[in-house]
Amino acid sequence: MIHVLFVCHGNICRSTMSQFVMQYLVEAQQLQDQFYIDSAATSREEIGNDVHYGTKAKLREMNIPFTHHAARQMTKKDYTDFDYLIGMDEANLRNMQRISGGDPQHKIYSLLSFAGRRDSIADPWYTGNFDATFQDVWEGCNALLETLKKEL
Questions:
Q1: CATH number for the domain harbouring residue 13
Q2: Which residue in 14, 38, 136, 141 is the catalytic one?
Q3: Active-site choice (38, 78, 89, 123)
Q4: Is 14 a catalytic residue?
Q5: What per-residue confidence (pLDDT) applies to 57?
C-alpha cells in the first residue's frame, strides 16, 4: 500500500482539494485498496477547521465527493508513516523539510513536479481563484497517480 500525504499551509484549501481529487482518481481506477491518502498543514493556523467552503464548492461542481476533514499540522512522524509527502509551493516544501528534520529518504515532492512543471499551486485563500487551483491540482494528481501506478 502506498501512503500519500498532501501538504499546504493551512490544510483547508489546496491539500484537501488534492486529497479528495486523488481519492476520486484512485477509486475511478478501482485502486483504493492500494492507497492511503491524507492531508495536513505546515502551520497551526487552521487546526481543527473543516475544508474551506470554496474548495467544497469547486469539488461539488466537479462531482468529486469529499468528507469532513479537520485540519491538522504535519508531524515528524508523518515523514516515517508516509511514502510520499506532496507540497503545493516552495514555502510548503521548506516547512515540510523543517518539520521532518530534512528529507534523507527523498519523500518530499512538489505536486506539479509529477507533471513536469516547476510551478507552485496558487493558494486560493489569497487569490480566490479555486478554478485555477483545481486545474493545477487535477493535472498534478493525474500525473502523480500515473507515476505511482508503476510501483504497484
A1: 3.40.50.2300
A2: 14
A3: 123
A4: yes
A5: 98
38 is annotated as an active-site residue: no
What confidence tens digit (pLDDT) does each residue in 83-97 have? 999 999 999 999 999
Enumerate residues 6+ apart whose C-beta is below 8 A from 39.
5, 6, 7, 8, 11, 15, 16, 18, 19, 69
Instruction: Give the pLDDT score at 71.
Output: 98
Half-sphere exposure (CA, 13 Å, Cβ side) for 100?
Answer: 28
In the annotation, is 13 catalytic?
Answer: no
Place of cell 487569490: 127
Owning domain of residue 131: 2-149
What is the number of structural domains in the chain?
1
- 38 forms beta bridges with 5
Q: Per the structure block, which three cell numbers stand in for 118? A: 516547476
**In a 10 Å sphere around its CB, with 0-12 CB exposed, 13-18 middle and 19+ buried, how is residue 140 labelled?**
buried
pTM, whole model, 2 decimals? 0.98
- List pLDDT tens digits, range 45-66: 999 999 999 999 999 999 999 9
